[in-house]
Design brief:
Blueprint lengths: L1 E8 L9 E5 L3 E8 L2 H13 L4 E4 L5 H11 L4 E4 L13 H4 L1
Parallel strand pairs: 1-3, 1-4, 4-5
Antiparallel strand pairs: 2-3
Helix pairs in contact: 1-2
Length: 99
């Protein structure tokens, strides 16, 4: 079974509260909401240390935020990203402009 995470960034999100896990016969996916790149890094490390092998970041993580997560998990998980040049949930800005 693939153990995966989707980390999304949204104002006011609390990773301790804003999380949910969905299990199918082939994938266990945990979605975690964070409000900063630093919280995203912490959530990614937590998931990688728990055996998660695939982490997908929402489009709110810019190039810098994606790099921060990639470096933090130190190869324990593959990191991918949904891409928006300008994210509609972040007032049409890149997360790199905000965080």
């Amino acid at each position: 079974m693939l153990n995966a995470a989707f980390i999304f960034i949204a104002g006011g999100a609390d990773p301790a509260v804003n999380r949910s896990t969905v299990e199918t016969p082939s994938v266990c996916l945990t979605a975690i909401g964070v409000s900063t790149y630093e919280q995203g890094v912490e959530a990614a490390i937590e998931m990688a240390d728990a055996g998660c092998t695939a982490i997908e970041l929402c489009g709110g993580f810019g190039i810098r935020g994606t790099y921060m997560v990639q470096e933090a998990v130190k190869g324990k998980a593959r990191v991918g990203a949904v891409r928006f040049d300008l994210h509609p949930g972040l007032d049409n800005k890149s997360g790199d402009e905000i965080f």
